[in-house]
Amino acid sequence: MLMKEYLKNERGFVLPLVLLVMVVLSVLFVSMFTLTEANTNQVVVQENNLRGYYMARSGIEIAHAALMTEDSDPSYHLQIDRFIDESSDGSLTDELSLPEDDPMSDIEIEVSVVDSEVKIYATSTLRSNGAKQDLALFINTSNYNDTRWSNQ
């Protein structure tokens, strides 16, 4: 009989149940918050990598455009022809900041002749967090339209 009365006694049962539900909801909330924060951090890292990649690519395209301009010397057709003849295993290095009006990245560009290709190599360093990204463009010396990109 005593056991029957004890099982029917419902006083004090709601408080532990409410506490248990609150603990479960708290754990779920904290885990959701942690996942959201991790995703946000990952997006920032990916944005910085993309920003660095496109800044390095912009630097390479600026150097490529400069090499593909016509040379003032009539013995050379393009600037790249003069560079190939005068490089003699040397390299040309330049630094620039992009965009010019409000720089967000410093880019170091190196142009050199490697085997039968002209290599334009750029390293972009973001000013906001120092993230670095590098990229290279190889131009075939016998056919300037034959190019290939490479992540170093």
TrEMBL record:
Q: Does the keyword Transmembrane helix apply?
A: yes
Keywords, comma-separated and alphabetical: Membrane, Transmembrane, Transmembrane helix
> Membrane-spanning regions, if any?
12-35
List the top taxonomic levels of the source.
Bacteria, Bacillati, Bacillota, Bacilli, Bacillales
What name does the UniProt record give this protein?
Type 4 fimbrial biogenesis protein PilX N-terminal domain-containing protein
Organism in which the protein naturally occurs: Pelagirhabdus alkalitolerans
